[in-house]
């Protein structure tokens, strides 16, 4: 018996991995985070037990996993995006380890990747930014020392900020001293869902634009020069004179 923590992807059911889909269709027990995982992801399942865990607390979820283990039944524990990023699987894994219950993590497409696809851009451009920082705005979960937005902004890297759109004014205030008012920003609401929407602007006007469209949750904030960069250098990867293992230089 194994508990599979499966990343369902950002919303579009077609973005789940082949392995994730196969396990969902095979496992006799499915626990899914229904607040963020569309039921279409479960299409084709043959499970005997399907539970939407949106209204359950940790102890109730762990109890269901333990009961399935006692019956010798594999569990598809389905989370949105990639379960290793803000998926709250760490505490579930801790309980599984204490009980000696095997588990496996099946990666999923992240919201950041879906947002970049929607914007039609690359997040790491030569001589513009080679670093992407995935973070969140401090709220009920306190940020460790050195991980405030102000601290991270000193790097001037590309930022992907989760769980913070309702505090867009505070986020802008922390970033402005480091990125400047002209820095490009994109806010993507429910990326890859049928009702996905986006707002683009700069740190000078993005808060006003977000308020105007009414984004309050389930949105990702991308910040950085890569969002509007032009005339950047070509990477070495496909440069004719660049030799590597698979292609001798010219």
TrEMBL record:
Alphabetized UniProt keyword annotations: Cobalamin biosynthesis, Methyltransferase, S-adenosyl-L-methionine, Transferase
Pfam families to which the protein is assigned, alphabetical: TP_methylase
Entries under SUPFAM superfamilies matching the protein: Tetrapyrrole methylase
Gene3D superfamilies xref list: Cobalt-precorrin-4 Transmethylase, Domain 1, Methyltransferase, Cobalt-precorrin-4 Transmethylase, Domain 2
The family this protein is said to belong to: Belongs to the precorrin methyltransferase family.
Record NCBIfam families: cobM_cbiF
Gene Ontology MF terms in the entry: precorrin-4 C11-methyltransferase activity
InterPro entries cross-referenced by the UniProt entry: 4pyrrol_Mease, 4pyrrol_Methylase_sf, 4pyrrole_Mease_sub1, 4pyrrole_Mease_sub2, Cbl_synth_CobM/CibF, Siro_Cobalamin_biosynth, Uropor_MeTrfase_CS
Name of this protein: Precorrin-4 C(11)-methyltransferase
Pathway: Cofactor biosynthesis; adenosylcobalamin biosynthesis
Species: Metapseudomonas otitidis
GO biological-process terms attached to the record: cobalamin biosynthetic process; methylation
Residues covered by the Tetrapyrrole methylase domain: 2-206
């Amino acid at each position: 018996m194994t508990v599979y923590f499966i990343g369902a992807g950002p919303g579009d059911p077609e973005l789940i991995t082949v392995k994730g889909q196969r396990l969902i269709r095979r496992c006799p027990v499915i626990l899914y985070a229904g607040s963020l995982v569309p039921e279409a992801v479960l299409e084709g399942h043959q499970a005997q037990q399907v539970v939407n865990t949106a209204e359950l607390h940790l102890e109730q979820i762990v109890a269901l996993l333990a009961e399935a283990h006692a019956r010798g039944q594999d569990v598809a524990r389905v989370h949105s995006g990639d379960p290793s990023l803000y998926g709250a699987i760490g505490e579930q894994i801790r309980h599984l380890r204490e009980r000696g219950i095997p588990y496996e993590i099946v990666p999923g497409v992240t919201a950041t990747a879906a947002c970049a696809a929607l914007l039609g851009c690359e997040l790491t451009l030569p001589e513009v930014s080679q670093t992407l920082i995935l973070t969140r705005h401090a709220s009920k979960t306190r940020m460790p020392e050195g991980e405030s937005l102000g601290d991270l902004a000193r790097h001037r890297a590309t930022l992907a900020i989760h769980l913070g759109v309702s505090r867009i004014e505070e986020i802008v205030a922390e970033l402005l001293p480091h990125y400047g008012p002209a820095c490009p920003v994109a806010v993507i609401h429910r990326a890859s869902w049928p009702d996905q929407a986006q707002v683009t602007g700069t740190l000078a006007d993005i808060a006003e634009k977000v308020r105007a469209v009414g984004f309050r949750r389930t949105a990702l904030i991308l910040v950085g020069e890569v969002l509007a960069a032009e005339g950047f250098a070509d990477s070495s990867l496909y440069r004719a004179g660049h030799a590597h293992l698979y292609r001798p230089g010219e």
